[in-house]
Amino acid sequence: MSELADTTILIAASWPPQAEDNNFKVMFEEATVYLCTSLVEMGAQVVYGGNLDLNGLTERLSSPFSSQRADMPVFVHVLDEPSLVRAGFDRVKQVLQKRTTGAIATWACVEDTFGYLSIDGGQISVAPVDSQPILFSRRTFPSSVSNADDAAALSFARSIKAEKVDACIAIGGKTGLLSNPQDHYFGFFPGVAEELIGVLEGRKPIVPLAAYGGCGRAIAEALGLEQSTSDNSPRQPGYLEAMDRLDKLSDYIPDKVRDDLAQVISAPLDSEIIAAIASIIKNWGEPKPANRSGYRTA
Which end of the chain has less neighbouring CB within 10 Å, N or C? Predict the structure, then answer.
């Protein structure tokens, strides 16, 4: 299948608070993996930004592609600088040593630089598209975030991801409910919302999967695609601002796909829903992002 050939899709995803329940967590993992593998089978390239925790979502999403050989990457992992620093030299090197088949590409943000991550003679190389690689040994590997704070570094990475993709599918994510530490997010805004906002501001296709709760559902409600169920419980700074921005961007959804979008986002993922999502992305219309080379030439 090649319905989504030459289409790069950002998966904006993280554990929703419901993942405290192990049954829900397993279901969410399986749904997100199924989403990624189905999109790749349709010819798409999938982009995901997550940390390198040993049992984290990045491991689960990338694992189906770890032994797959490909001339061009089908799964692109983008590391923000805080995640890079926390992982450390040895963990990053260990991960890169496993990603050698061409199907998975790893990119990272360091200071104001965005580059392809690889091993070069025992060192870790960060190679921007338009400048010389930066080489890190264990001794020189970043030990702290260079930005003013973690939130600024996270926003930089999220903006890079949004700029370089053709579409975004949001699933899960935190909403900053103060009474639930499992619902707390990192950054100025909920990460899933911030990534989707960046894509929608570029008038590119977005699909917030309300069926899996969390920020994905909150996004759908803010865009007027789902009936609101939100309450006025205290939340982290930035949540309400993100929802207000989404409300103002709701007119960026083309009328020709709005009804179809509202129908698919509340249903659990299966082959028919995936096909409908692909159709929405294809029928959304222009514009395409100006810079398409960043991931495909890695």
Answer: N
- Relative orientation angle of helices 191-201 and 214-222, to the nearest 10 degrees: 40
Q: What is the pLDDT of residues 211-251, one digit of tens each?
A: 999 999 999 999 999 988 877 899 999 999 999 999 999 99
pLDDT in tens, 4-39: 999 999 999 999 999 999 999 999 999 999 999 999
Q: Report if residue 82 sits inside a domain.
A: yes
Judge whether 186 and 222 are in contact, CB under 8 Å.
Answer: no
Q: Give just the sign of the alpha carbon dihedral 21, 84, 12, 232.
A: positive
Collect all residues with Cβ–Cβ distance below 8 Å to 237 and sequence separation of at least 6.
188
Q: Which tens digit of pLDDT belongs to each residue from 238-284?
A: 999 999 999 999 999 999 999 999 999 999 999 999 999 999 999 99
Residue 83 lies in a domain: yes
CATH number, position 38? 3.40.50.450
- pLDDT for position 1: 63
In angstroms, the CA 81 to CA 285 distance is: 33
267 in a domain, yes or no?
yes
Between the two ends of the chain, the Cα-to-Cα distance in Å is: 23
Give the tokens for residue 291.
């810079």
- Domain range enclosing 270: 8-296
Element (H, E) at 114: strand 113-120
How many domains does the chain fold into? 1
* Assigned token pair, 283: 């029928």
Taking each helix axis from N to C terminus, what angle separates 191-201 and 239-249, rounded to the nearest 10 degrees?
30
C-alpha distance from residue 102 to each of 26, 35, 44, 191, 226 (Å): 28, 21, 15, 28, 39
